[in-house]
Amino acid sequence: MKLLDHLNIKKVHVVAVSAGGPSGICFASKYSERVESLILQSAVTKQWLTAKDI
């Protein structure tokens, strides 16, 4: 957010792909007033690796 503020960017379009899906969702929910749109492509939306898998 500091970078967006420094660059004087008021709103952004967030694109989250694959394992970046949760980060995009988190960003959009935390800073909803700054997100113009959220685009998810093949996004992982639930935990897909557990301690059992490692």
Tally the beta strands. 2
Strand order of the largest sheet: 1-2
Estimate the mean pLDDT confidence: 89
Total helical elements = 2
Q: List segments where confidence is low: pLDDT < 50 over at least 5 consecutive residues.
A: none
Could you say which structural class the secondary elements and strand pairing correspond to?
A: alpha+beta
- Broad shape: elongated
Secondary-structure element order, N to C: HEHE
Percent helix, as a range, is 25-40%
Total domains:
1
Please give the largest β-sheet. Answer: 2 strands, parallel
Our Rg estimate from Cα atoms comes to 14 Å
Strand content: 15-25%
Distance between the termini: 33 Å
What does this entry look like structurally?
With 54 residues, the chain is α+β, with helices and mostly antiparallel strands. The protein has one domain. 28% of the residues lie in helices and 24% in strands. The protein contains two helices and two strands; from the N terminus they run αβαβ. The chain has helices at 2-6, 21-30; strands spanning 12-17, 35-41. A two-stranded parallel sheet has the order 1-2. Helix 2 (21-30) links the parallel strand 1 and strand 2. The radius of gyration is 14 Å and the shape is elongated. 2% of the residues are buried. The mean pLDDT is 89.
What descriptive keywords fit this protein?
2 strands; alpha+beta; 54 residues
Summarize the structure.
Keywords: Hydrolase. The chain is an alpha+beta fold and 54 residues long. It is 28% helix and 24% strand.
Sequence-ordered SSE layout with sheet pairings:
Elements: H1 2-6, E1 12-17, H2 21-30, E2 35-41
Parallel strand pairs: 1-2
